[in-house]
Amino acid sequence: MTIGESKDFSHLYSDETKARKPSPLKTCIHLFQDPNIIFLGGGLPMSDYFPWDRVQADSPLPPFNKGIGAPVSGEADDTLRLALRKNEITKAGETQDIPLSRALQYGFSQGQPELLSFVREHTAMIHPMQYSDWDVLASVGNTNSWESTLRIFCNRGDTILAEAYSFSSSIYAAEAQGINVFPVPLDEFGIIPEKLEKILDNWNPEAAKPKLLYTIPTGQNPTGSTLSDDRKAEIYRIAQKHDFIIIEDEPYYFLQMDPYVKDPAKRAEKTVSSHEDFIKSLAKSFISLDTEGRVLRLDSFSKVLAPGVRLGWIVGSKKILTDYLRLHEMTIQCPSGFTQSLVAGTLNRWGQDGYLDWLIGLRHEYNEKRNVTMDALYKYLPQVPFIKVSPPSAGMFFTINIDASAHPEFATKYQSKPELVEQAIYDKVIEHGVLIVPGVWFKANGDTQPPQPAESKVDVAPNEIFFRGTYAAVPLDKLQAGLKRVGEALYDEFAVTR
Ligand code: PMP
Ligand code: PLP
């Protein structure tokens, strides 16, 4: 089957993007690499003066038989020793590294070719693409990609849509640019398409329509929900109908797990071991449904390698990525050269298969952490109808959902205000020596001027509050001890008898 080209979405661009001229110096930078050109055109320092001649790194070797967290011995049977040189001399058959003289120089704002080719191949394996002119662009992680996205598309006073509870830093990044973040209701399966469609069908025609939907489909932060594949198709249809761009911010995509089974005796040992099974087990992405170039996918190594590598990539149509590149040329330029060369050197040696082994290893680790968390929550939390937990199927977060009106002092001490109960519980859990964070910190509640109809803003469960916790940050024994303390705090606060 032949696939078509992406559409032009420049009518949705910000004034800033429309006004941005490409830097003329960047139009000739590629000639710096041309051996036939004596390049006197740019302020590039000579690599002889870069004070690193060789950078060495040890990392584990696929297939990571001892588990992905096992320390490396330094011996050849479990350790990959990578040595990057300033001037790489590669022999035939050896892995092509990014020489430090190039990685640490200006140029290649789109990312170094050795990194991009790995990421492109990986993307094509995981997300079968439905249009021909797609590409990837290196970023400094999804925080940076989202900030760039807002600037590419939005003007002050514009409105975007987001899950009613969303990653606070993403909401605040938008609000700081004068952009309204209009909430879309979600449940444990993510955004509810019918509600989204209703909001847009009833959109106040005096206000400009939203240009973007910002969504965290997998292991949503903060609710831990995962958007079902069926809903994604519906939401894509609504995006076409109402002409907005979908931004999928997917740092947790590879933290997808087996469904939680309450009875430990019935849990399967390893449900996913082959690469084929693994790829098949993954949620369908928005980018893989996209036939028009209407989706931008923000991917990051933060949660699968390390946050401090500050490296990610954006997948989208070449047309739109060109405008991101022009913005990057004036902001980040490109991710750090050390990062790109170390990560590309490691991944190109692991190979696509080795990287899948790593991701499968990660899945097993998170499965275990999620299981321990859920077991502990069922064991330690008061088993009462007004406190609910739902086992996440992806990501790092679990939530404890509470009907605040069940608090014995709801109407008296707390004046029937759920947010006051939320604050009291927050204080109480800290008193018990553990930290989980209130859902209200993640609430999107922007509106347009003039406002949207009241029924578009109805809260489905106004007395429900929730707390977000993570099982990612501490070892299992500490995790269990922490959840026990949460349980004790809730027994106390709600005066539940044990
Ligand atoms: N400002 C000025 C005046 C410059 O000449 C340059 C580099 N040519 C830059 C900023 C870019 O600096 P950096 O590499 O630190 O982003
Ligand atoms: N987006 C979401 C939804 C997140 O939860 C996080 C991490 O906390 C980020 C982005 C940040 O990602 P990065 O480290 O790639 O900037």
TrEMBL record:
<dbReference type="Pfam" id="PF00155">
    <property type="entry name" value="Aminotran_1_2"/>
</dbReference>
<dbReference type="InterPro" id="IPR004839">
    <property type="entry name" value="Aminotransferase_I/II_large"/>
</dbReference>
<dbReference type="InterPro" id="IPR015421">
    <property type="entry name" value="PyrdxlP-dep_Trfase_major"/>
</dbReference>
<dbReference type="GO" id="GO:0030170">
    <property type="term" value="F:pyridoxal phosphate binding"/>
</dbReference>
<keyword id="KW-0663">Pyridoxal phosphate</keyword>
<protein>
    <recommendedName>
        <fullName>aromatic-amino-acid transaminase</fullName>
        <ecNumber>2.6.1.57</ecNumber>
    </recommendedName>
</protein>
<dbReference type="GO" id="GO:0019878">
    <property type="term" value="P:lysine biosynthetic process via aminoadipic acid"/>
</dbReference>
<keyword id="KW-0808">Transferase</keyword>
<dbReference type="InterPro" id="IPR050859">
    <property type="entry name" value="Class-I_PLP-dep_aminotransf"/>
</dbReference>
<keyword id="KW-0963">Cytoplasm</keyword>
<dbReference type="GO" id="GO:0047536">
    <property type="term" value="F:2-aminoadipate transaminase activity"/>
</dbReference>
<dbReference type="GO" id="GO:0006571">
    <property type="term" value="P:tyrosine biosynthetic process"/>
</dbReference>
<dbReference type="GO" id="GO:0009074">
    <property type="term" value="P:aromatic amino acid family catabolic process"/>
</dbReference>
<feature type="domain" description="Aminotransferase class I/classII large">
    <location>
        <begin position="105"/>
        <end position="444"/>
    </location>
</feature>
<dbReference type="InterPro" id="IPR015424">
    <property type="entry name" value="PyrdxlP-dep_Trfase"/>
</dbReference>
<keyword id="KW-0032">Aminotransferase</keyword>
<dbReference type="GO" id="GO:0005737">
    <property type="term" value="C:cytoplasm"/>
</dbReference>
<comment type="similarity">
    <text>Belongs to the class-I pyridoxal-phosphate-dependent aminotransferase family.</text>
</comment>
<dbReference type="GO" id="GO:0008793">
    <property type="term" value="F:aromatic-amino-acid transaminase activity"/>
</dbReference>
